Amino acid sequence: MHHLTRRLAVALAGSGLAARARASEWRPSRPMRIIVPAPPGGITDIGGRLVGAQLQAAWGQPVVVENRSGGGGVTGTVEFLRAAPDGHTLLVGNIGPQSIAYTLFRELPYTPASFAPVSGLIRGPNVLVVHPSVPATTVPEFIALLRARRGQLNYASSGIGQSPHLSGVWFLQLARAEAAHVPFRGSAPALVELLAGNVQFMFENLIAASQHVQAGRLRALAVTSAERSPLLPDVPALRETAPELAEYDVSTWVGLFGLAASPPEAAAACNAEVGKVLAQPDTRTRFAQAGSAPHPTTVEQFGDFVAREIAKWRDVIRREGLVLELG
């Protein structure tokens, strides 16, 4: 069995090397499509249009970016799966439909095996913010308050199963604390209620919250990523604030996927072009303005990253007992 496993690993490594060697030869033979399972204007859409412009400039073939929003990203993902597996159609996936959804939704019409990783694109943190009336200025003080007033504080989110909601769920699980979740239909109304003091805290998109933090209308206790954010350099990462939070690491992310049956050399060729645009200084500046950063990876690194994300959210969601029907 050991020799069989070793031979399989060698074969897989060889196939990866061969795909990379052929990547320089692969070119689209007709126009390409990039499906974005989100509305125009958001970070997923920004990632798709950046990739589209790069591929079109590099290969001289038209690249059409199609926004297919709905169903928390599931609608566009299902549309992508109808495409021919020839490397000419790509999906700009994100943390929702490509990691959280596998455990959150009952009878999801696809599995992780439906996709081939191509490249990471963008990563960015959420931030834990509290209303100024909350008598806690550090995460340890806040955890002590939550434990003392178990279940009495409320936290808002942009909706059940969204990244900000699950950021809160995992935090409470690790902190061994309780709070009441108040979901809203989107981030904007949730933030309004927090600013009014009708809820006490939330995990919010960094850009959306930072202006209120800087104006003193909200207090930022920590960012959810493994490292601090340049936008709020004095705000610690959650994992550095308490021993029980050492494993905490949450970033909203966007990445590029192909179909599982697509040619590996097509994924390798696209990965190489994505790496070029992510390395450009103006790309980093543009992402920073959205509270994010480039997330360049190899094909293999991105596949490993997505697998870890799926496993992480599977454990969090199952502990919480969350199951939703597809609407």
From TrEMBL:
SUPFAM superfamilies: Periplasmic binding protein-like II (SSF53850). This is Tripartite tricarboxylate transporter substrate-binding protein. InterPro entries: BUG, Bug_dom1. Belongs to the UPF0065 (bug) family. It holds the Pfam family TctC. It comes from the Bacteria.
